[in-house]
Each structure stands twice: as C-alpha cells, then as structure tokens.
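Quick one: structure tokens for this chain, please?
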Amino acid sequence: MILLARHGETDDNAEPARFQGWRDPPLNLRGRGQARALGRSLAGAGIRALYASHLRRALETAEAVGDLIGLEPMIDRRFAESRRGAWEGRLHEDIEREEPERWADWLRAGPSFRFPEGPGSPGESLAEHERRVALGLADVRRGPLPALVVCHGGTIRCALAPSHPRGLRAFHEIEVWNAEVMRLPAS
C-alpha cells in the first residue's frame, strides 16, 4: 500500500492563493500544526518507508511525520510539484483576470496543458509531471510497504489520474487538501 499526503499549508496556499510550483516557501504556523497532526494520525499505521519531494514545504511536513513514526524521509525530486513557469508566485485571481484564455485552458487541464515558460523556470506539461510521478511510484512499489509519499496537490492528482476514467482531464475534479492522506489505488 502506498499513501500520498499533501504538505501542510504555506502562506502561498492561504487566500489569496498563489501558484507555488517550484517556489520554495516554508510551512506557515498552521501548516506546521497540520504536519504534526498528520504524523500523529499515522503513528500506528505501520509505515515502513517515508518519501518526500525536495521542496521545503513537503520536506518539512515529512520530517514532522518522520519524527513521530521513527523514519527519516528519503528525498525524491520526482515527487515535486509541476514546474509552473511564468505563473510561479502569481496570484490565481491575477492570472484569471490577465490571461483569461490560458486560465480557461488550465481549468480544462488534460495531458497537453503546459504551464507557460518563465525566466529561469520552464513550464511543465501535466503529461510530463504525470510521467515522472509514475516513475517515482514504480520505485516506491519495489521498496518496503506500506510507504508514505509526502508531496504536493498536483503530484497527488497526477498519481491518481491514471485510475480515473477521464485521466488527466479529471485533474481539477480530484480534491486534495493540505496534510490530507490519500491511498493510491493498487495497480
């Protein structure tokens, strides 16, 4: 069994929300509390392996969980959020207002959706993100189970989309909350 958990809250997650992508904000006070609560909720789950994205918000969450379940997180960059290019750090509401056509494309999602390239930050497609997450999860399956992967909302959606009849077109239909645990369907 593989469990997926989204990191705790950051100031970028709080309203008004910003696209984080590979921006690297730390957990805020609420997020640190969520991370500790997540660890307490998993204390008796028998987790044998703990993985985390390299991004600070996921790593801080995984370290808080690891402290409570007695495991050190193994960092795997494949579980990072999608590279959101020019949108990283921008408010959702600003993009919706300033780039309505691209925003509409984002809401439709799908495998061909690609975040726009930004200075020093390539935009990644959802298909590319899904592919790297799948490769990471294949390696997790070969290790000790049950395992917990602490990552990001987009990463969890990319992990769950293959089991959805609409695939990546269902990206926005898959709700993922901060510090929520979801079970990866058996493949």
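The longest helix spans residues 126-141.
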